[in-house]
Specification:
Length: 216
């Protein structure tokens, strides 16, 4: 019987089917809700997201999820943001202008570089496909969302044109190399964790991340 209760937010900007299937495959009892009144009762909260940052923030605000998410974080219970659901946790994004985020994590969402670090090779944007996760210098995955992947260089699936730049170095949990640029691939600060990559589209490795969140 499922023993991990997961609440997944539906604010109209989510790839719900794949996310729900990944959590159900991991043995979770999943509730999908478009009602912010359900958020205070969640044991663990997932904020997925696809599309543009400002569209997602508009829907989150208009549906009353912004304050509900912030209050949930204040309880100390686990929250997991996925892709744009990760980006909206930060202060602001420069995607299609300047747009405020939820301000739960300090930092900004910036454009993925279009030229390699050496300034020579053009890079394809959006960054689409499989890329390997690495531990940032001074960060250890022990005790984190990514602990099951410790000691590996696992490949996971990305689709994004913008990427978070955490304001606190200690929040950076994983990076990936893109043309010599170290892109933020995952963050974690206390009970708040998030991935730029899509665990629900990352095969067995992604399921390990989903399971890791379920048992926190």
């Amino acid at each position: 019987m499922p023993n991990h209760k997961i609440t997944i937010l539906d604010y109209g900007m989510c790839n719900l089917f794949s996310v729900v299937r990944a959590f159900e495959h991991s043995g979770a009892d999943v509730l999908v809700t478009d009602d912010p009144a359900q958020v205070p009762f969640a044991e663990k909260l997932v904020v997925p997201g696809v599309g543009a940052f400002h569209d997602s923030m508009r829907e989150i605000h208009e549906r009353g999820f912004d304050d509900a998410i912030r209050r949930f974080v204040d309880t100390g219970r686990p929250l997991f943001g996925i892709c744009v659901g990760m980006q909206v946790l930060f202060d602001a994004s420069e995607e299609f202008g300047e747009h405020l985020g939820l301000g739960i994590l300090p930092g900004r969402v910036l454009a993925v570089p279009k030229v390699s670090f050496n300034g020579i090779e053009p890079l394809r944007v959006p960054h689409i496909g499989w890329n390997h996760l690495t531990e940032p210098r001074g960060r250890n995955w022990t005790g984190s969302l990514l602990e099951p992947l410790k000691g590996l260089s696992p490949a996971v699936y990305f689709v994004h044109s913008f990427v978070a730049t955490p304001g606190r170095e200690v929040d950076l949990l994983a990076e990936c190399d893109y043309g010599g640029h170290a892109l933020c691939a995952a963050v974690q600060h206390q009970n708040v964790m998030a991935t730029q990559f899509h665990p629900e589209r990352s095969g067995a490795v992604g399921l390990e991340v989903v399971k890791s969140f379920c048992v926190l």
